[in-house]
Amino acid sequence: MPNLKDAPLYERIYAVICQVPPGKVSTYGQIAAIVGRSCTAREVGYALAALKAGDRGVPWQRVINSQGEISLPDEGGEIQRRLLEAEGIGFDARGRIDLDRFGWDGPDWEWLDQNDFNPAPLLRRTGKKGARGRQLSFL
DNA sequence: CAGATGACTCCCA
DNA sequence: CTGGGAGCCATCT
Asked: Reduced to 3 states, what is the DSSP secondary structure of residue A70?
C-alpha cells in the first residue's frame, strides 16, 4: 500500500503509530493531530482498543496520554510499562514519563508527503488558554 | 439499520 | 488534587 489517503481511519492511525521509534513515546492527541481530518484523541484510543491481539506489529505501547501516563488499565498497563522500560524509557515516582525527554518529534516531512497526510495545524481548540507546549513540531 | 462500546482531552468547580 | 461534563466517531453485535 503506497498511499494511505483513502485507507480507513483506523488504518491511518496505525500507520502513524508505526512511525514512532523505539525509545520514544507519543500521545493520543499527537497521533490524532498528525492523522488530521476528523481524528480526535479519543478515536486513537478507540482504534488501539480495537487492536486487541490482532496486533500486526503496531507499537501500541508507545502511545500514552497527555499527562505522560499510561491509560491502559490493569494488566495491560503493567505489560505496557514493562515494554517501555525495556526500550529504555524511564518513569518518575508518580509513574509518569517525561515527555520532554522521551516524547516523539513527529514523522518526517517526506513520510507525510508520500502518504498524503494533511496534519492538523499546530493549535487545535479555538480560543481558550492556548498552547500548552508540546504539539507538533513541524509547520 | 439501531444501539452499544471504547486505551482521550480539555475545562471548570 | 478530585470529579464531572461535553465533544467525538468507527466498528461490531
From this structure: coil
